[in-house]
């Protein structure tokens, strides 16, 4: 009934919730656990296992829940076509609130679009624009972030700040309440517009030895007013944590 989403994550889930560490070797495999705070009334926070699959080549990449094909790639700039899982969903059968149980189910979806990043001495600019391709929400998301990486021996720390834009269709699918749902549930009818949700993010990566790495990614998001004003939602913010261990070949 929440995200992941991982996704989701992680990815990205959430859709843009991806660790930012880069490795010289092309393939890493591992396991991770994602914690996601539910934004929904009566929703339960989730701990979800997420496999780590990272592969990087000159032409394409796989980053757990995101994959892409490079249109342009050099040391500073990378432009790619991308697909990513958006595991956000809502299942009324899993909800503890009586009114929320009368709402329809919202499904996970797959999104496709373009992603761009620029790396310089002053930091990293990263952005992704993607839209639903499975005819679920028919919505779009746009993620824009600035990050700065600190290299401390075998330890890498990457704080960041960003914002996630969700189109009106995206918000209406996951947070809107139709007239028929309002009649069944007693919740007020709600038809949100597009919204911006700013966030703070911190990524930590530790090189245990030549092959093994441990990572932790945390994000704190302030939900946009069009989201937090929904009768489905009882939080004004959301916390996500993703931790795992991977082996680089």
Automatic annotation (TrEMBL):
Subcellular compartments: Cell outer membrane
Signal peptide interval: 1-24
Keyword Cytoplasm tagged: no
Pfam families in alphabetical order: MipA
CC per GO annotation: cell outer membrane
Top-level taxonomic group: Bacteria
Keyword terms, alphabetized: Cell outer membrane, Membrane, Signal
Single GO BP term: peptidoglycan biosynthetic process
InterPro entries attached to this UniProt entry: MipA (IPR010583)
Family note: Belongs to the MipA/OmpV family.
UniProt-listed PANTHER family: MLTA-INTERACTING PROTEIN-RELATED
Protein's name in the database: MltA-interacting protein MipA
Annotated source species: [Pantoea] beijingensis
